[in-house]
Structure prediction request, 331 residues.
Amino acid sequence: MKYRKLGKSGLKVSALSLGSWVTFGKQVDRQGAKTLLKTAYDAGVNFFDNAEGYEAGKSEEIMGQAIADLGLSRDTYAVSSKVFWGGKHKMQLGLSAKHVRDACDAALSRLQVDYLDLYFCHRPDIDTPIEETVRAMHNLILQGKVIYWGTSEWSAQQITEAHTVARAYGLTPPIMEQPQYNLLHRDKVEAEFRPLYENFGLGTTIWSPLASGILTGKYNDGIPEDSRLNLPDYEWLRDLWFNEEGKKKLEKVRQLTALAKEIGISMPHLSIAWCLKNPRVSTVILGASRLSQLEDNLKSMDAVEQLTPDVMEKIEAIVDNKPAGPQRFGQ
Ligand code: NDP
Prediction:
């Protein structure tokens, strides 16, 4: 395993980490979670990602039980939660100071830990002043309940505002952002956030490196029965990929699959290694519904050196989605 600094913080996270969206609490039970976490941990993974909204808290419960079952030493791994979707009640939603605090306490209890290493605002909340959320996060840090706080799918402008407020009032600024990043989704990480890496030392914990499995090539000829896009309650995700736009992307995946074959690596390895090539990525959060996937994906580090400049050019030609340079934002 290789380790990277989480932005300018002192925390060194494993370049590959493990998340639990869709899987823990839906496809994976406590015993399965234990096996996945142990396999990841034994391979050097030191960051496990979660959120209050995943399976309505069940995902955190299972992760907490599995970590306790394994008896992992608390000073050897980092665990996260995210606040935003805590339930159906109005007060269980968003980033008000009250919900940020209540959600943190609930996550600590489900995960069976005394503090969260990373705590994310899962989405921006346009109904709450950013200052209120920054202050709420700062207070949790002072109380020892959170070590680092960050955002997920915020815009560069919103992250900048959080920093401006933090600087003005002597509060702790966000240190990391959790954006989607993969071969089919690049703009935020490669273009929009570019000034933030230099200005704020922003770290990134990127999600869906395989675009929910699309980038493994397993959907090239239709939807496999035992796959995420065939799960009940995830019809919305299937619809995202099997509309006109999605079908164009699937065609690119078919071409990428042929390229992977040509250079002798698997499609999941090509996709994950491509994310790892970007030094702005602090950690690639893997998802796995079964052990064989995790075992395979953990080997993708070995494929990085096979993505030579020549191969990277061929990939660019296929995906044809390279974001324009910074001038794009000054126009
Ligand atoms: P991926 O894009 O890597 O998708 C993972 C899924 O793809 C697996 O659950 C599995 O689904 C399939 N898969 C994985 N590896 C293989 C393989 N080798 N061969 C075949 N199929 C494979 O990541 P996720 O979308 O799961 O995201 C990773 C993590 O990122 C999440 O767990 C969560 O922690 C975080 N996240 C954060 C979000 C945010 O808003 N901040 C949003 C989404 C995720 P199956 O077997 O069911 O087909």
Q: What stands out?
A: The longest strand covers residues 78-83. The two ends are 41 Å apart (CA to CA). The beta strands are 3-5, 12-14, 16-19, 47-49, 78-83, 116-121, 146-151, 176-177, 203-206, 283-286.
